[in-house]
Amino acid sequence: RTMKARVVGIPAKFKSELEIGDYIFHHHHVALNDTQVVDPKEKIYRVNYDPFGGQGNQAYLIEKPDGSLIAVADWVFLEPFDIDADKEKSFIEIITLKEPEKRWGRIVYGSQWLEEEGLAVGDVVYFAKDADYEMDINGRKLWRMQIHHLICQKL
């Protein structure tokens, strides 16, 4: 799946941190959708962007030339967090046959929208069922979701 591309042009309609030469992590359908082809020979595609977020926003994460990463609009990236790892272990262990749901994560990348929600990079949060979409971000497996999928923060 193609989900990262170099930026070769930017519409003037929106102000953004995005600059020509940056890389952008985007929805995998961008390269599969014929309606988003700008130049098939050069493999240039249009990535839908909305500064107000929402499902129509196919731009998720900007990678600057220095390697820094900036989440776009209402997208947030989490790494898995084992909520039970810091619990005290006892000599009795209950074994279940069903794998427990992994719905806790630590925020790794987020936009300025995080601060508006009272959250920050490093916070551990619980998120809505099936909100975690795994993406490879430069060799690191992270979960992508929108901020409204975050339900609560671990204090």
Produce the secondary structure layout.
Elements lengths: L3 E3 L16 E4 L10 E3 L4 E2 L13 E5 L5 E3 L3 E6 L23 E7 L2 H4 L7 E4 L5 E5 L2 E7 L3 E4 L2
Antiparallel strand pairs: 1-2, 2-5, 3-4, 5-6, 7-8, 7-11, 8-9, 9-12, 10-11
Structural description of this entry:
The structure is a single chain. With 155 residues, this protein is mostly beta strands. The protein has one helix and twelve strands, in the order ββββββββαββββ. The strands form three sheets. It has a six-stranded antiparallel β-sheet, with no helix packed on it. It has a four-stranded antiparallel β-sheet with strand order 1-2-5-6, with no helix packed on it. Strands 3-4 form a two-stranded antiparallel sheet. The protein starts with a strand and ends with a strand.
Overall shape: it is elongated
Strand content: 25-35%
Order of helices and strands: EEEEEEEEHEEEE
DSSP strand count: 12
Largest sheet: 6 strands, antiparallel
Which secondary-structure class do the elements indicate?
mainly beta
Strand line-up of the largest beta sheet: 10-11-7-8-9-12
Cα end-to-end separation: 37 Å
What is the number of helical segments per DSSP (H or I, 4+ residues)?
1
Specify the helix fraction band.
under 10%
Rg (CA only): 18 Å
Low-confidence stretches: none
Overall mean pLDDT stands at: 89
In short:
The protein has 155 residues and is an all-beta fold.
Which characteristics define this entry?
155 residues; mainly beta; four-stranded antiparallel beta sheet; 1 helix; 34% strand; elongated
